[in-house]
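Q: Here's a chain of 348 amino acids. Please give me its 3D structure as tokens.
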Amino acid sequence: MKIKEIIISEIAKKGSIDVSQFMEFCLSGNNGYYIKNEVIGKKNDFITAPEISQMFGEVLGAFLINFWNENINNEFNLIELGPGTGTLIIDILRTANINKNFLNAINLTLIEKNETLIIKQKNNLSNINFQRVNWIKELDIKKNNRPSIIYSNEFFDCFPIRQFYKKNKWYEKYIKYNEAKKIFNFISEEVKNVDLLKNLEKFNHVKVAEISDSRKKYFDLVCKYIKKNSGICITIDYGYKNLPNNFTLQTIYNHKKTHLFENLGNQDITAYVNFDDLIHIAYKNELKIDLFCNQKDFLIGCGLKKRKEELQKNKSGKTYKKIELDYERLINKFQMGEIFKVLVISCL
């Protein structure tokens, strides 16, 4: 069955489904967007920081090496959540050549469900002759007890969300299917669940809310993994700490914004990450918040400007200018610099 038919069938059974259920079918169901497609890159739907410039992965790699030197200095797990095409881990491993002890201590695990991307990752990693790699679909807290470094870039934004708004009372957005017109449409249902209404109280001043139970559950698993094994987790994503007064869900197809009901199973659907939720979960697991800042401050603080200048040496013309433009895209407040946040949590 096609995704559209599956969703229509589910709505027929239940009368309607919430936004998170709709997203789940489109993104992670059978033939879902993240299951079947190669989605990252200039020729696909969106491009991430590692594809923009090698500087991103090199600076992150230097940060990881420094943490390992100061706090682990032994065999450890290096785990990437949602590694995409493998560009980021390749840049990190290339940077690791400056510290052979770090490189030789790595037990690499890539968390990936997309079989197409796994093939791409294997091919790309084979080009640098790094073979100590394990691919798994889910993070398993029961396995091993080595110190761990977990990192992700644009991973938590794709978790399904429910959408709520307040007009004297709280309402949740649901999706129905109009059989006569052959179209999906939104409806609203009043929230009556007492526990849910209690959770929505913190959103009263902004009057809109996007809640992702699956994102919080997954991040809680990451925190428990770090708590059990010791180590650090670095999460980089677009998001906020102070609640916005607007919905942030967006859909992208071929680098252009689209509508949620278009291109079912063939377009990216994301929402900004509520970093306040993640910080609260980390504290609940008795972890330390080492850092929370925007991407610009993180990259500049870790030496991005110096790395840019090194790459520009003996370069001229288009190459020199491209390095400068890529640098600006990573840190400019109107591009990725402020909208992307970096959260670092640890247990030592």
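Q: Can you summarize the key feature?
A: The CA atoms of residues 37 and 116 lie 7 Å apart.
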